[in-house]
Design a protein that fits this description.
single chain; 99 residues; alpha+beta; Alpha-Beta Plaits; four-stranded antiparallel sheet; 4 strands; 31% helix; elongated; Muconolactone Delta-isomerase; isomerase; EC 5.3.3.4; muconolactone delta-isomerase activity; aromatic hydrocarbons catabolism
Length: 99
């Protein structure tokens, strides 16, 4: 059974990070996240306007799978992450077959 999570990721890279190392890190992060997006396990990602942060929705098989995905992020050591489990809301018209 697929479990949904809202995950906020705030990034704080060191200001003195070597530009080449930063570029490599960001390229690896982009490739890694896009692979998970293509798999269907990371169906949504939004930028938080004015911040180095994103809000993403994950559709995973287990807590362990989400943990594995997040720990595998190349930017993980520079992130503060907040995970919120989600469930369907009874007022959501998309969940109501009568709508």
């Amino acid at each position: 059974m697929t479990q949904l999570y809202a995950v906020r990721m705030d990034v704080a890279l060191p200001p003195d990070m070597d530009p080449a190392a930063r570029a490599d890190l960001l390229a690896r992060e982009k490739a890694y996240s896009q692979d998970w997006q293509r798999s269907g396990h990371w169906p949504h990602i939004w930028r938080c306007v004015g911040q180095y942060a994103n809000l993403s929705i994950f559709a995973v098989d287990s807590n362990e799978q989400l943990h594995e995905i997040l720990w595998g992020l190349p930017l993980f050591p520079y992130m503060s992450i907040t995970v919120t489990p989600l469930s369907a809301h009874p007022s959501d018209i998309a969940q109501d077959p009568a709508q």
